[in-house]
Each structure stands twice: as structure tokens, then as C-alpha cells.
């Protein structure tokens, strides 16, 4: 099994932590970087190969991870010379990827079963599988429904339930056919294109632990929770 880790972003929302370090290498707990945790999880799940898409401060990631042998994996790299969006880096490495593979952001802290995501993707026959997580959004205002300038309904501070993308995907290589290498391609554009041609993605629903470390508050929470969740996140590693 092969995984692609997207680690080329500048981590702007996580500054000042990312001023000198790429976001996937910010430390969690006393001993581990986020990227190290992810690589150990992938190795434990049975992944033998990984391509890391690097850009901003990418040489630091390359120096830290090396060839991946310390985790029993074969790691190679693809360098973004300019920002290519979420899915754009895959186009530049397309020919060296297997027919189906895992794609994930390099700043995700979760106990998701990565092998099962890829396995379910293969079984589904879908062009893309999106790992999803339930989120409840609280609205701080009274919400009005209006019709012809008349209020016809009112709800005081409602909550809305959504399923959001976890930043982990199963992807079939042929799904990338027709897109031009070197041009930006976002996850949103790919999903909308698949919906437009009536070839919808498959949803992999997950309700375990997931934290997208995108902002300082998320990073502080990850560090606060890591000690109690370490055995869950690094089980068998």
C-alpha cells in the first residue's frame, strides 16, 4: 500500500510556530513531530511506500524523514516549485503512483484506520473516497426564515450538523486523467467536477479521534491531549 502526504503548505494559520519549521514538523508532546506520528501510523497499518509532497521549508522535512527506513518504509519526494493546491501535486507524480493510493494532509492527528480507508475505497469502485467526520456548528443568533418580507419562521440559536472532510482520501489514479500537470488543482474543484459528471465520491464515515492542526488553538489542544491519547494514536507502533 502506498500513501501520499501533502506537506508543501506554508502553515500561515499556525504562525508563529511555523516561522522556522514546516507545519508537519511542529512537535506534539515531548518527543514526536506530527509527521513522525503519521508515518509511524502508516507503517503500523501496513503501508510500505510513501511520497511526501514538499514545498515551503521542504528540505527540513527531507532531512528529518530521509528515506523512511527508520519506520520500515520507502519514502520519496515530490517538490512543488509553486503552490499547486490540494490535489495539484499528485499530477506531477502521477506516473509513479499505483492505481489506488491514500492521500492525506500532513497535519492530521487521528486514530483513523488508514488501511481500511484505502481498502474500502478499492471495494467501492468510486473515483475518490473522502474520510468524513461529524461536526455540530452552533449558531449564535436567532435565525429567521422570511418570505415576501414576512417572517414565517424563527429558531433561537440553532445547531446544524455537518459531515466534514478529514483531509484523508482514497484515490484512483485514473481520476486524475484530463488534468494538466503543473497547474493548480484543488480538492474542491475535483469534487465538483466528479459531481458534475455524475461520478460521485464515496464517503468513509468516522467517529473516532480527529484533530486538524490548522490554528494555534488546535495545536495547543493537540499538545494538551497527546499524553492521554498517545497509546491510542501510536498503538502497535
From TrEMBL:
Residues 3-227 form the Nucleotidyl transferase domain. It comes from the Bacteria. InterPro entries: Mannose-1P_guanyltransferase (IPR050486), NTP_transferase_dom (IPR005835), Nucleotide-diphossugar_trans (IPR029044). This is Nucleotidyltransferase family protein. It comes from Streptomyces siamensis. The lineage of its organism: Bacteria, Bacillati, Actinomycetota, Actinomycetes, Kitasatosporales.
